[in-house]
Amino acid sequence: MSEHGSNGKIKVAHIVYGLGGAGKELGILKLVAHLDAQRFESYIVVITHINMKEINSLDRFNIIHLNVGKGNQPDLPLKLAKVFRKHRFDIIHTHSWGTLLEGVLGAKLARSPAIIHGEHGTFPQKFPHSLVQRIFWGMADRVLSVSDVLGKQLSATTRFNNEKISVILNGVVSQNFFPDAVLRAEFRRRFHFRDDDFIVGTVGRYNPVKNFPMMVRGIAPLIQTGEIVEFAHVGGGWQAEKDGAALKNLAAELDVSAQVHLLGYQSEVNMIYNGFDVFTLTSFSEGCSNVIQEAMFAGKPVIATNVGGNPELVQDGVTGFLVESDNAAQWADALRKLKSDPALLKRMGENAREYALKNFSLKKMIDSYEQVYLDVYRKK
Hints:
Blueprint: E1 10-16, H1 23-34, E2 40-46, E3 63-65, H2 76-87, E4 91-95, H3 97-109, E5 114-119, H4 129-139, E6 142-145, H5 148-158, E7 165-167, H6 181-190, E8 199-203, H7 213-224, E9 230-234, H8 240-253, E10 260-264, H9 269-275, E11 278-281, H10 290-297, E12 302-305, H11 310-313, E13 320-323, H12 328-340, H13 342-359, H14 362-378
Helix pairs in contact: 2-3, 3-4, 6-9, 7-12, 10-13
C-alpha cells in the first residue's frame, strides 16, 4: 500500500463506546487533536452516549454518533461495517472491551485495511471474556497498552503473547500544568481554605474503582491525633450524587466531616493541582493515570496505590509514595511523612515535575502513535 490514501491522508477511526469525562476518552480526544493533520485525518465513532461538559466544544472533531442503546446489539457490527465502508477508513482503532468484538467484526466485514486495539486500564478478566479477548486481539494488526504493567497483566490473564503488545504511555500538554503560587492562593481563596491548611486532594469522576472512601478513612486517624489534614475531591460523573452522599456519610461516621470537601466538577484543573499540597490516587485499578501525570507537572508529590501503571509513574520515595491497595493506614503514614517534613514535601514535588518533564511529554506520546499508524498502514 502506498504511504497516503486517495485524499493524501491516512484516515484513522477511533471507536469508543461512549464519550464522557473519563481519562481514557479525554486521552483519545487529546490524541486526535494533536496528530499531524497534514498526514492523518481522524474520526471518532461513538457507539452510545456523548456527555462532554469537560470539553468546551466538540465541533473541531470529526464525530460519527451512532447513538445506539446500551446492552447487547446483535446488529451493531453490521452498522459499524456500513460506516467503515462509507468513509473508507484506512485504520480502525478500537478502544477497550466495550468496542472490541463489534469493532473488530465490523472492520472485518468492511474489509478495513488495518485494525489496532488499545487497552487503557480496567478490563474483564474471567472466562469466557479472557478467551474472547485473546481471540479478537489476535485479529488485530497491533495491540496497545498504556503501561508495561498493564500489558503484562493483559498477557497473564488472557494468555495472549506479551511480545505482541506495544506500550505507549499517556502524555501531557506540559504548558497547561505548572507550579504557580498565584493559582495556589486563588484556589484557597475561592474554596475558603486558609493559606496554612495542609490539603491532600484528588481529581477524578465518581466511580467505585477509584476507591475514594480509602482517603476518608485515611485522614481519620491523623485528625484523631491532632494532625489536621484537609481532604479535597474534585470531579463529577454520573454517580456523583450517590457516591458523593456515601462519602459524606462515611465522613460523618468517622467524625471528619469538617475536613472532607467535595468541590464538584471544576474546569480550571491546574489551579486545583496548585491548591493541593499533596496529590493522591487510591484506585483499585489504573492504566496510565492522566491526573497523576498532570499533578506531577504541577510539582506535586503523589501518594498512589501500587496498582496498574502507577509504579511506572510514581517513583516510590523519590516523587511520592506507593502504598498497598485499600490500605488506609499505610496511606495515612505516607501522608504524615510529607506533612511533618516540609523539606521532603518540597523535594518530592520538585522531583515529580522534573520526572514528568522528562518522561510524560505529549510529543513523545504522539510520535509513538504516529509511528504505529504508519507501520501498520505501510504493511498493508
